[in-house]
Amino acid sequence: MSSSEKRPRVAVFISGHGSDLQALIDASQCGDLTADIVLVVSNNPDAYGLQRARAAGMCTWVHDRASYADAATASSALCDTLRNAAIDYIALAGYLKLLPKAVIVAYPRRIVNIHPALLPRYGGKGMYGRFVHEAVLASGDKESGASVHLVDEQYDHGRILEQLRVPVLPGDTPETLAARVLKAEHQLYPKALQKLIQGDYAI
Length: 203
Ligand code: GRF
Hints:
seven-stranded mixed β-sheet; alpha/beta; binds 5-O-phosphono-beta-D-ribofuranosylamine; single chain; 37% helix
Protein backbone atom coordinates (compact mmCIF):
# COMPACT_ATOMS: atom_id res chain seq x y z
CA MET A 1 0.00 0.00 0.00
CA SER A 2 1.46 3.42 -0.87
CA SER A 3 1.55 6.09 1.82
CA SER A 4 -1.06 8.11 -0.09
CA GLU A 5 -3.61 5.30 0.12
CA LYS A 6 -6.17 5.43 2.88
CA ARG A 7 -5.49 2.96 5.68
CA PRO A 8 -8.39 0.56 6.22
CA ARG A 9 -10.45 1.12 9.36
CA VAL A 10 -10.78 -1.88 11.66
CA ALA A 11 -13.21 -2.67 14.46
CA VAL A 12 -12.02 -5.25 16.99
CA PHE A 13 -14.61 -7.19 18.99
CA ILE A 14 -13.67 -8.52 22.43
CA SER A 15 -15.25 -10.06 25.52
CA GLY A 16 -12.35 -10.23 27.94
CA HIS A 17 -8.68 -9.70 28.54
CA GLY A 18 -7.85 -8.33 25.10
CA SER A 19 -4.28 -9.54 24.66
CA ASP A 20 -4.96 -10.33 20.99
CA LEU A 21 -6.41 -6.82 20.67
CA GLN A 22 -3.19 -5.49 22.18
CA ALA A 23 -1.13 -7.40 19.60
CA LEU A 24 -3.18 -5.77 16.83
CA ILE A 25 -2.84 -2.31 18.43
CA ASP A 26 0.93 -2.75 18.75
CA ALA A 27 1.25 -3.91 15.13
CA SER A 28 -0.84 -0.98 13.90
CA GLN A 29 1.25 1.48 15.87
CA CYS A 30 4.60 0.10 14.70
CA GLY A 31 3.51 -0.16 11.08
CA ASP A 32 3.50 -3.96 10.73
CA LEU A 33 -0.26 -3.66 10.27
CA THR A 34 -1.17 -0.94 7.79
CA ALA A 35 -4.64 -0.40 9.20
CA ASP A 36 -6.12 1.77 11.91
CA ILE A 37 -8.06 0.21 14.77
CA VAL A 38 -10.69 2.86 15.28
CA LEU A 39 -13.33 1.06 17.33
CA VAL A 40 -13.36 -1.66 19.99
CA VAL A 41 -16.70 -3.32 20.65
CA SER A 42 -17.40 -5.49 23.70
CA ASN A 43 -20.48 -7.33 24.90
CA ASN A 44 -18.96 -7.18 28.38
CA PRO A 45 -18.68 -3.76 30.03
CA ASP A 46 -16.02 -5.08 32.41
CA ALA A 47 -13.72 -6.50 29.73
CA TYR A 48 -10.15 -5.50 30.52
CA GLY A 49 -9.57 -5.07 26.80
CA LEU A 50 -11.73 -1.92 26.94
CA GLN A 51 -9.13 -0.35 29.21
CA ARG A 52 -6.41 -1.27 26.72
CA ALA A 53 -8.43 0.36 23.94
CA ARG A 54 -9.02 3.54 25.93
CA ALA A 55 -5.34 3.71 26.87
CA ALA A 56 -4.55 3.61 23.16
CA GLY A 57 -7.05 6.42 22.50
CA MET A 58 -9.59 4.29 20.68
CA CYS A 59 -13.36 4.62 20.69
CA THR A 60 -15.08 1.86 22.61
CA TRP A 61 -18.66 0.70 22.50
CA VAL A 62 -20.44 -1.81 24.76
CA HIS A 63 -23.03 -3.73 22.82
CA ASP A 64 -25.32 -5.43 25.33
CA ARG A 65 -27.98 -7.26 23.35
CA ALA A 66 -30.14 -7.68 26.42
CA SER A 67 -30.67 -3.94 26.60
CA TYR A 68 -32.54 -3.91 23.26
CA ALA A 69 -36.18 -4.82 22.69
CA ASP A 70 -35.27 -7.72 20.40
CA ALA A 71 -32.46 -9.27 18.38
CA ALA A 72 -33.32 -7.34 15.21
CA THR A 73 -33.10 -3.99 17.01
CA ALA A 74 -29.80 -4.99 18.62
CA SER A 75 -28.45 -6.08 15.24
CA SER A 76 -29.39 -2.82 13.51
CA ALA A 77 -27.82 -0.78 16.32
CA LEU A 78 -24.60 -2.70 15.76
CA CYS A 79 -24.76 -2.26 11.98
CA ASP A 80 -25.42 1.48 12.42
CA THR A 81 -22.42 1.85 14.72
CA LEU A 82 -20.11 0.07 12.27
CA ARG A 83 -21.43 2.11 9.35
CA ASN A 84 -21.11 5.41 11.24
CA ALA A 85 -17.50 4.56 12.10
CA ALA A 86 -16.85 3.74 8.42
CA ILE A 87 -15.46 0.33 9.35
CA ASP A 88 -13.80 -1.65 6.55
CA TYR A 89 -12.75 -4.81 8.42
CA ILE A 90 -13.77 -6.59 11.62
CA ALA A 91 -11.40 -8.67 13.76
CA LEU A 92 -12.90 -10.85 16.48
CA ALA A 93 -10.45 -11.21 19.36
CA GLY A 94 -11.89 -13.36 22.11
CA TYR A 95 -15.45 -12.28 21.30
CA LEU A 96 -17.77 -14.89 22.74
CA LYS A 97 -20.95 -14.03 20.81
CA LEU A 98 -22.08 -14.93 17.31
CA LEU A 99 -22.22 -11.93 15.01
CA PRO A 100 -25.69 -11.17 13.65
CA LYS A 101 -26.28 -12.23 10.05
CA ALA A 102 -26.71 -8.59 8.96
CA VAL A 103 -23.12 -7.82 9.97
CA ILE A 104 -21.77 -10.89 8.18
CA VAL A 105 -23.67 -9.94 5.03
CA ALA A 106 -22.41 -6.34 5.24
CA TYR A 107 -18.72 -7.42 5.43
CA PRO A 108 -18.20 -10.32 3.03
CA ARG A 109 -14.69 -11.82 3.42
CA ARG A 110 -13.80 -8.91 5.68
CA ILE A 111 -14.38 -10.47 9.10
CA VAL A 112 -11.76 -12.65 10.77
CA ASN A 113 -11.51 -14.54 14.04
CA ILE A 114 -8.65 -16.14 15.92
CA HIS A 115 -9.15 -19.48 17.63
CA PRO A 116 -6.74 -21.16 20.08
CA ALA A 117 -6.53 -24.55 18.34
CA LEU A 118 -5.83 -26.11 14.97
CA LEU A 119 -9.24 -25.86 13.34
CA PRO A 120 -11.31 -27.65 12.16
CA ARG A 121 -10.58 -29.63 15.31
CA TYR A 122 -11.60 -28.24 18.69
CA GLY A 123 -13.92 -25.54 17.37
CA GLY A 124 -17.63 -24.84 17.55
CA LYS A 125 -20.13 -23.86 20.20
CA GLY A 126 -18.77 -24.27 23.72
CA MET A 127 -15.17 -24.62 22.50
CA TYR A 128 -13.56 -21.56 23.98
CA GLY A 129 -11.01 -20.72 26.66
CA ARG A 130 -9.81 -23.60 28.79
CA PHE A 131 -12.36 -26.02 27.28
CA VAL A 132 -10.31 -26.01 24.06
CA HIS A 133 -7.02 -26.77 25.81
CA GLU A 134 -8.59 -29.41 28.07
CA ALA A 135 -9.92 -31.19 24.98
CA VAL A 136 -6.54 -31.05 23.23
CA LEU A 137 -4.78 -32.48 26.30
CA ALA A 138 -7.42 -35.21 26.71
CA SER A 139 -6.96 -36.25 23.08
CA GLY A 140 -3.25 -36.90 23.48
CA ASP A 141 -2.43 -34.72 20.46
CA LYS A 142 1.25 -33.84 20.23
CA GLU A 143 0.62 -30.37 18.86
CA SER A 144 -1.87 -27.56 19.04
CA GLY A 145 -1.77 -24.00 17.75
CA ALA A 146 -3.69 -20.96 16.61
CA SER A 147 -5.98 -20.54 13.60
CA VAL A 148 -7.17 -17.39 11.88
CA HIS A 149 -10.29 -17.88 9.78
CA LEU A 150 -12.97 -15.95 7.95
CA VAL A 151 -16.18 -15.60 9.93
CA ASP A 152 -19.54 -16.93 8.86
CA GLU A 153 -22.73 -17.62 10.78
CA GLN A 154 -21.34 -20.60 12.69
CA TYR A 155 -18.79 -20.64 15.47
CA ASP A 156 -15.20 -21.19 14.24
CA HIS A 157 -16.42 -22.34 10.85
CA GLY A 158 -15.30 -20.11 7.96
CA ARG A 159 -12.34 -20.67 5.66
CA ILE A 160 -9.03 -21.08 7.49
CA LEU A 161 -6.51 -18.44 6.40
CA GLU A 162 -3.47 -19.12 8.60
CA GLN A 163 -2.32 -21.49 11.31
CA LEU A 164 0.68 -21.51 13.62
CA ARG A 165 1.58 -24.74 15.41
CA VAL A 166 2.99 -25.17 18.89
CA PRO A 167 4.02 -28.40 20.63
CA VAL A 168 2.03 -29.98 23.43
CA LEU A 169 4.66 -30.75 26.05
CA PRO A 170 4.75 -33.47 28.69
CA GLY A 171 3.23 -32.15 31.92
CA ASP A 172 1.22 -29.43 30.15
CA THR A 173 -1.84 -28.15 31.97
CA PRO A 174 -4.63 -26.22 30.22
CA GLU A 175 -2.96 -23.06 31.56
CA THR A 176 0.56 -23.78 30.28
CA LEU A 177 -0.76 -24.87 26.89
CA ALA A 178 -3.03 -21.81 26.69
CA ALA A 179 -0.09 -19.51 27.40
CA ARG A 180 1.99 -21.12 24.64
CA VAL A 181 -0.86 -20.90 22.15
CA LEU A 182 -1.63 -17.30 23.11
CA LYS A 183 1.96 -16.30 22.38
CA ALA A 184 1.56 -17.84 18.93
CA GLU A 185 -1.72 -15.95 18.49
CA HIS A 186 0.00 -12.65 19.12
CA GLN A 187 2.47 -13.39 16.32
CA LEU A 188 -0.10 -14.77 13.92
CA TYR A 189 -3.07 -12.41 14.13
CA PRO A 190 -1.47 -9.15 12.97
CA LYS A 191 0.28 -10.97 10.11
CA ALA A 192 -2.92 -12.65 8.95
CA LEU A 193 -4.94 -9.43 9.11
CA GLN A 194 -2.23 -7.62 7.18
CA LYS A 195 -2.29 -10.30 4.49
CA LEU A 196 -6.08 -10.07 4.27
CA ILE A 197 -6.10 -6.31 3.80
CA GLN A 198 -3.27 -6.54 1.27
CA GLY A 199 -5.40 -8.98 -0.72
CA ASP A 200 -2.89 -11.83 -0.34
CA TYR A 201 -5.58 -14.48 0.10
CA ALA A 202 -7.28 -15.64 -3.08
CA ILE A 203 -10.83 -15.21 -1.83
C1 GRF B 1 -7.72 -16.19 22.58
O1 GRF B 1 -7.21 -17.41 22.99
C2 GRF B 1 -8.44 -16.33 21.27
O2 GRF B 1 -7.92 -17.31 20.44
C3 GRF B 1 -9.82 -16.72 21.68
O3 GRF B 1 -10.06 -16.00 22.85
C4 GRF B 1 -8.82 -15.71 23.51
C5 GRF B 1 -8.78 -14.24 23.71
O4 GRF B 1 -7.72 -13.85 24.54
N1 GRF B 1 -10.78 -16.50 20.62
P1 GRF B 1 -7.51 -12.32 24.84
O5 GRF B 1 -8.79 -11.79 25.47
O6 GRF B 1 -7.22 -11.63 23.55
O7 GRF B 1 -6.35 -12.25 25.78
